[in-house]
Design brief:
By secondary structure, this protein is an alpha/beta fold. The protein is 23% helix and 30% strand. Helix 1 (12-29) packs across helix 2 (45-52). The chain is globular, with a radius of gyration of 16 Å. The structure holds inosinic acid and magnesium ion.
């Protein structure tokens, strides 16, 4: 698995610091709110697990799964809901927890869908952001780091469902995805 990684971009320790800072900020901003953290599966599962342990106020969690990429490294144009939320979100302050904001199309679609269910508020927390790749007007309210336009894997992020279990963020060797596209 390590042979497929060109170089490490963020170590486990760097990620821990970034996630702790986000958790502190969110805990301050959401005290006295009805916080529901919504993790977008599967990429954000590692981030979610770490982030929620840095939340020091009462909160609930839920999960949603979408599919749009297949095994390609760019957006295919459609978003499918593979798993919906378990509850009615009226009156909840939703915090969408996403691994990476790229074109923005996935979250743009999800925001419209969730707003229609009348939550008290919706904000986005993304660990990574690729702002120069954005195709729709969407911004994260909480953001870990802006990353260069390279395909990254690890810490939950995959390429063709692999590499999610790497504890760091690495840049995938180009030959890995070029040979299969
Ligand atoms: P968007 O709709 O283009 O913003 O898609 C965001 C989703 O694409 C993320 O939740 C990831 O699942 C996936 N994605 C985008 N860039 C990367 C990357 O560099 N590595 C792994 N997954 C990525
Ligand atoms: Mg994802």
């Amino acid at each position: 698995m390590m042979n497929d990684i060109d170089h490490i971009l963020y170590s486990k320790e760097m990620l821990e610091g970034i996630v702790a800072d986000l958790g502190k900020q969110i805990s301050e901003d959401y005290k006295d709110r009805k916080l529901l953290m919504v993790s977008i599966l599967k990429g954000s599962v590692v981030f979610m697990a770490d982030l929620m342990r840095h939340i020091t106020i009462p909160c609930e969690i839920d999960f949603m799964a979408t599919s749009s990429y297949g095994s390609s490294t760019s957006f295919s144009g459609t978003v499918r809901i593979l798993k919906d939320l378990d509850r009615d979100i009226r009156d909840y302050d939703l915090l969408i927890v996403e691994d990476i904001l790229d074109s923005g199309k996935t979250l743009n679609y999800l925001m419209d869908l969730l707003y229609a269910r009348n939550p008290a508020s919706i904000r986005i927390c993304t660990l990574f952001d690729k702002p120069e790749r954005r195709q729709v007007d969407i911004k994260a309210d909480y953001k870990g780091i802006s990353v260069p336009d390279e395909f990254i894997v690890g810490y939950g992020l995959d390429y063709a469902e692999k590499y999610r279990n790497l504890p760091f963020i690495g840049v995938l060797k180009k030959e890995i995805y070029e040979k299969s596209e």
